[in-house]
Amino acid sequence: MAKAPSVKWTREQLLIAMNLYCKLQFGQFHSRNPIIIQTAEKMGRTANSLAMKLSNFASLDPVQQARGIKGLAGASEQDREVWKEFRKDWNTLGIQSEDLFQNLFVSTGEKEAEISDKGVKVKPAKILTPPTGPTEKTALVKVRRSQQFFRQTILNIYQHRCCITGIAVPELLVASHIVPWSQFPEHRLDPQNGLCLSSIHDAAFDSGLVTFDDNLRLTLSKELEKYFPQEALEKNFAAYQGKTICQPEKLSEPNREFLKYHRTEVFK
User: Fold this and answer.
1) The dihedral of CA 46, 71, 188, 184: what is its sign?
2) Is residue 251 a contact partner of residue 61, using CB atoms and an 8 Å limit?
3) Whole-prediction pTM value?
4) Which distant-in-sequence residues (6+ apart) come within 8 Å of 12 by Cβ?
5) Is 181 strand, coil or helix?
6) Strand residue runs (E) in the chain
7) Residue of 112, 177, 166 whose CA lies nearest to 142
């Protein structure tokens, strides 16, 4: 039997695949994954071809390679170009890929597609603030999708666990920015500017009560230590002082220059 001709990947399809690469763990790159099955069907491709493409991207990921994960050889020149573009401009490619992914499943900004262990679910979108007109409505959809992409990417690369404590309750986890996105909008969606923290550790980090050194070890501020002894504080903070955070499993480690900024400009 003659081999079926391969269908060339479009740029838009590669952006969707890269979007999923950011949101799924390596062990989920298989054709039985309901997320891959649903997305591939919407793309007009087979689940196997999409799963293989994710593994092609893994072969380009230096963090994966450092972990001993080689991925699937045979990444095309177009794969490499999309990978480089993402690494160079997360803000543009992140939101473009999120728009393309969302548009596979929803036709309006009132609903959004969200991935879970059971597949892609469509649900009513979270309304940040009521829009006053079409232009503002479009802007709010973009903001919401940007936030969703960043959150899902950061939680995924940290294995859906607080990088300090290991807490693995999604409702308690925050995709925290190292340098404020309001001051550094160019790094708003950059995984190097993200940490997965529990809500209490996110609040402490954001307010400068804790930080991390160049070796990614937790440091407590004198301001926080003024409230010792408190059993809850000691369990949640003192117990982890000086310990190295869990490392991301792909894409990139926290940027050391961003952490330096936090230590000098935010840490108390």
Assistant:
1) negative
2) yes
3) 0.91
4) 100
5) coil
6) 111-116, 119-124, 173-177, 194-198, 210-212, 218-220
7) 112
Tell me the one-letter amino acid at 219.
Answer: T
Q: At what angle do helices 11-23 and 47-58 cross, to 10 degrees?
A: 70
- Would you say the C-alpha torsion 168, 144, 39, 26 has a positive or negative sign? negative
What does the domain layout of the chain look like in residue ranges? 11-157, 170-265
Three-class DSSP category at 215:
coil
Reduced to 3 states, what is the DSSP secondary structure of residue 14?
helix
Rounded to whole angstroms, the Cα distance separating 67 from 64 reads 5
Measured CA to CA, the distance from residue 259 to residue 167 in angstroms comes to: 22
Taking only the tens place, the pLDDT of each residue in 220-242 is 999 999 999 999 999 999 999 99
CA distances from 204 to 98, 181, 228 (A): 30, 17, 15
Which two structure tokens, joined as six digits, stand for 64? 């994966």
pLDDT tens per residue, range 105-127: 998 778 899 998 889 999 888 76
Q: How far is CA 64 from CA 140, 192, 248, in A?
A: 34, 15, 9
Per-block average pLDDT, block size 10, for the chain (268 residues)? Answer: 66 98 95 97 97 97 90 95 97 97 89 90 74 60 92 97 97 97 93 97 98 97 94 95 94 95 96
Count of helix runs (H) and strand runs (E) in the chain: 11, 6
Helix axes 134-157, 11-23, angle to 10 degrees: 50
Place of tokens 């991390």: 212
Question: Between β-strands 173-177 and 119-124, what pairing exists: parallel, antiparallel or unpaired?
Answer: unpaired
Output the average pLDDT for the chain.
92
Compute the distance between CA of residue 62 and CA of residue 92 in angstroms, rounded to an integer: 22
